[in-house]
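Quick one: structure tokens for this chain, please?
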Amino acid sequence: MPKALKYVYTWGNKKADGDGSMKALLGGKGANLAEMTRIGLPVPPGFTVTTEVCTYFYAHKKTYPKELQSQMEAGVVNMEKIMGTKFGATSGMPLLLAVRSGARDSMPGMMDTILNLGLNDQSVLALEAATKNARFAWDCYRRFIQMYGDVVLGVQKREGEDHEPFETVIHEFKHEKYHADIEDSQLTAEDQQELVKRFKALVKERTGKVFPNNPWDQLRGAAGAVFSSWMNDRAIVYRRKYNIPAEWGTAVNVQAMVFGNTGETSGSGVAFTRNPANGVNEFYGEFLVNAQGEDVVAGVRTPEPVLKLKSVMPKSYAELLAVRKTLETHFKDVQDVEFTIQEGKLFMLQTRNGKRTAAAALKFAAPGPHLRPRRREEGQGHRHRSPGRPRRRHRQDLLQRRTLRPGCGKG
């Protein structure tokens, strides 16, 4: 009997089925999560559903291989063992999941992240009891319904509407109760409970269906939304423009949630290991205290420069600097990272080679203590190369802007 195909690759607790070389199968995000796990960085456990499933999905009328469900279940069990929590638990601490798309390279049109998957009317009470933090539990549930409703169920802005419908509900509630645009972080547990009710009513009104309560239905729906996003209009246009084959497909990354929104010793941030604008050797980025990762990029609150983390959470900042050094030493290029701090404990959620301006690219090309030239035996091409070395177009761009000053270059 032939061996069943492997569609799910797990990572966690310093072990991973995949590695950084497997971007074609695991996507860029999944491959790098596996690689960070292998080199001992604090990465929450998870699994990647491979790009082969995406190919199968479209070749078989949007259905899945029969082996996939059992392999996903094994992946969830692996997370449960490492985290000491259970998916869909109605007592004790429930395992909640983050679901992200994962093409070989990030591209517009792909599905946005879904956080806190696994929450329902029962598990939110278990989360509240386990954390003794009602506001946190209901904040997570409200966020989940908003993300899932938008991304998976399609509750989005209609023609003629100025604002996203969930944001309209929040705005109206704030003015109804507080007569002001208070920050989301000022909403109470009772406020979040009321918003959960209103969000569910919005989903029912817009879709004609109740919000899914079963965690496995939620997970299958999220995975389907990732694969469907591979063929949406924006993604297709982008692939045509950059000659990316549709056959490549996208992976799905499912990861145990860690929480940056549990209080003042928690937070989330995004950063570059060096300044991508000018190439200066400094940790460069933004963070928010008491926030989940999406808050940093959503513009709901104004983030702080990541350097300020040194005074707010000095221990976590020191750990971040150590991770920064490890990443540059290992990947031999400037990295663009996402991180979460949960009650003083640092977790790394993503790394990828950082984009940079032409000026920064030239500065990176002079190797520092971590950005040393790659050797031929490291499998990085045939030439000795500084990892930050700018491509020719970077150099041309930089030189052009320097020489074409006002009054120069005119016939």
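The longest strand covers residues 345-353.
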